[in-house]
Design brief:
- Helix content is about 45%, strand content about 25%.
- The strands form two sheets. It has an eight-stranded parallel beta barrel, surrounded by six helices. A two-stranded parallel ribbon has the order 3-5.
- The mean pLDDT is about 95.
- Helix 4 packs parallel to helix 5.
- The two termini are about 15 Å apart.
- It is α/β, with parallel strands linked by helices.
- It has helices spanning about 10-15, 30-40, 60-70, 80-85, 100-115, 125-135, 150-160, 170-175; strands at about 1-5, 20-25, 30, 45-50, 50-55, 75, 90-95, 120, 140-145, 160-165.
- The chain has a single domain (about 1-175), classed as Aldolase class I (TIM Barrel), CATH 3.20.20.70.
- The chain is built from eight helices and ten strands.
């Protein structure tokens, strides 16, 4: 239901002790990545590669991250990054920002080109868009961005979101799995 998104080291420590099986790493420095992944070794970690400071957007950066750190998956807004990660055998999430009907049409095309495993739709509170992207692509949709309340989580799921990413720790606690 919830896919915790980690923004700072306090979140890493908290999540390492939780029952969540998966998480997303956002906004970190390449020099901290190894330590973070060591602390989260019991989790399936998606790395948002576009937000890792100290990396370029080149294929070599994707290869380096996957070969060195062996994440469960990669998140990116870039089709070529998603394709490279898929080629290297990890799960992929293409992240799309849908702000108007033109962006929706572009995003559908990007999703189809990328052949990602999952699609993260931002903003996650765009309930009409979640359903439309799911219907048009047949992909599992992750709602992300601007989700701050239990009602927004419930709405995203009601509209067809497979999971909801959030960095709000109070929502992690509310929806933490029991096992």
């Amino acid at each position: 239901m919830i896919l915790p998104a980690i923004r700072d080291f306090k979140d890493v420590e908290k999540l390492s002790r939780s029952h969540y099986k998966q998480c997303v790493i956002l906004d970190t420095h390449i020099g901290h990545l190894g330590h973070i992944l060591d602390l989260l070794k019991s989790k399936e970690v998606f790395i948002h590669i576009d937000l890792i400071k100290g990396l370029s957007g080149e294929d070599a950066a994707v290869e380096y991250i996957i070969q060195k750190y062996k994440p469960f998956g990669i998140i990116s807004t870039k089709v070529k990054t998603i394709r490279k990660a898929k080629q290297l055998g990890v799960k992929t999430i293409i992240r799309v920002f849908i702000i108007d009907s033109s962006a929706l049409a572009r995003s559908i095309s990007i999703i189809e080109q990328s052949e990602a495993d999952y699609v993260e739709v931002l903003p996650g509170i765009a309930s009409k868009v979640i359903k439309e992207v799911k219907d048009k692509t047949g992909k599992a949709i992750i709602a992300g961005g601007l989700i701050e309340t239990e009602e927004e989580v419930a709405r995203a799921h009601a509209d067809g979101a497979y999971k909801v990413t959030t960095s709000r720790r109070e929502l992690w606690q509310k929806y933490e799995p029991n096992d």
